[in-house]
Amino acid sequence: MVIESIPKVVGFIYGLLAFIALVGLWYSGRFTRRRALPFLVISALLGFLVFAPVFPYQLQMVALRDTVGLGSPIPMALGALLVFIALAFAFGRVICGQVCPAGAVQELMYRVPVAKRGSAERQTPVVIRAGVFVVFAVAALGLSADLLGLIGLPAFFHLAVGSVSFFVFLGIVLLSAVVYRPFCRYVCPYGALLAPAASKALFRLRRTDACIGCRKCERACPTGEADPAAGLGECYLCGRCTDVCPVEGALVYGRAR
Ligand code: SF4
Ligand code: SF4
């Protein structure tokens, strides 16, 4: 399905433009899950059409020095990835939320109306993902091994149905209908880099004095980040909390205090 004649940089340019549009929606208070839907669909489609901006795999291609797969020089791809990490520090995990095709596919799957499972506990997924990141780094930098290839991330977006790894990632995608973003929260090496940056984000979700303490946002959040004590490193800016908040202006996206 991936059309090799389309340059990968198209995905990065889309990523930047979508990022700007999404931050604009959040900052103006107009972000809703309904308005996020077109971004999720386009991001997922770009994953299948150009395999970009699939940020976790493009990080691995940089680590493996795979210039053919990247479709751009290493410094350019590395620079783009660093820019997006800096943007997470400024604005939170907008990329993971709606721009990265791997995240978008899982977010779309979680919208399928079936019973949900899994814990909103914050620490365990972060610890597991940190361990996976160490394995990923050793595999890519030390052994030149393609860990995300084994998990099937490229096979899935290339629709390589003859490959076993395709079915591994397909299983993860199907699981994401009941467990919120299993790949992002437990595996993604790029998420492991973005989460610490986002936990210190300059612009973020926060409650205001208008909050009546009903805790509907906390019950709606699949990652436990609507708790006012949370750092928001695992907030995917999905919009579930703001959609259910009954008081206008009680939960806003703006400058951190
Ligand atoms: S529901 Fe949770 S993950 Fe989604 S935007 Fe709100 S705090 Fe972030
Ligand atoms: S849903 Fe809104 S009003 Fe209720 S606790 Fe959350 S921010 Fe406050």
Task: Name some characteristics of this structure.
257 residues, binds iron/sulfur cluster, mainly alpha
Description of the structure:
With 257 residues, the chain is mostly helical. The protein has one domain (9-255). 59% of the residues lie in helices and 4% in strands. The chain is built from 15 helices and two strands. The chain has helices at 9-27, 33-50, 55-63, 67-70, 74-91, 94-99, 101-110, 123-142, 147-151, 153-157, 164-175, 182-186, 189-198, 216-220, 240-244; strands at 203-207, 251-255. Strands 1-2 form a two-stranded antiparallel sheet. Helix 1 packs antiparallel against helix 2 and helix 3 (55-63) packs across helix 5. It is globular. It binds iron/sulfur cluster (SF4) (2 copies). Residues 207, 211-217, 245, 247, 250-251 line the site of one iron/sulfur cluster.
